[in-house]
Specification:
Layout: H1 2-10, E1 21-26, H2 27-32, H3 37-54, E2 57-62, H4 78-85, E3 92-95, H5 98-105, H6 109-114, H7 125-143, H8 149-162
Parallel strand pairs: 1-2, 2-3
Helix pairs in contact: 7-8
Length: about 170
């Protein structure tokens, strides 16, 4: 969905977002590169401040639950994000699974004030197949690699069978 949003912006199909870029923030990498919690906090503040200063960034924070609370080896950066986002000048999309939302974000009143929850249903297999076909064609154009139709169908079948902890199309 985020890639689709970015491509629609780049293709000028969303005039209200013309000139904006989509930046994906990897919270795991951000936390992993710092030596201590103070450094993580400082790095996160710097990323948010830079994105806000640019004025044309939609910041996407995958696994936002990882920075919503300090429980279960997570890092609570909710105060930092609340401070930066209080004036709504930086559009942010936070991504979390329904279970992680319920367990880590819903109890955090600061986060609930900043974000609107949008539930997305898992796409049907035919929709996942269309996504995979599109990705395969994109890889063919960009990298010269391709996949057969039958291999894409098998990918869906096998992931539905063996990857039970994630939903399509993330599988």
């Amino acid at each position: 969905i985020i890639e689709y949003l970015a491509s629609e912006i780049a293709s000028s199909n969303l005039p209200n977002l013309s000139g904006f870029g989509v930046v994906l923030l990897d919270t795991i990498s951000l936390a992993g590169t710092a030596k201590n919690l103070v450094s993580v906090r400082s790095n996160f503040e710097a990323v948010l401040a830079e994105a806000k200063l640019a004025g044309n960034v939609i910041l996407v924070i995958d696994q936002i639950d990882r920075i919503a609370t300090a429980q279960d080896e997570r890092i609570d950066l909710s105060e930092v994000i609340t401070t930066i986002l209080k004036d709504s000048s930086l559009p942010v999309i936070g991504i979390a699974t329904p279970d992680d939302f319920s367990q880590y974000i819903r109890p955090n009143a600061l986060f609930l004030k900043l974000f609107d929850k949008i539930d997305l249903d898992q796409p049907q297999d035919r929709e996942v197949l269309q996504i995979l076909i599109s990705k395969s064609l994109q890889n063919l154009r960009q990298k010269g690699t391709s996949a057969t139709f039958s291999s894409l169908v098998e990918i869906i079948d096998k992931t539905n069978q063996y990857v039970l902890d994630k939903k399509q199309p993330e599988k």
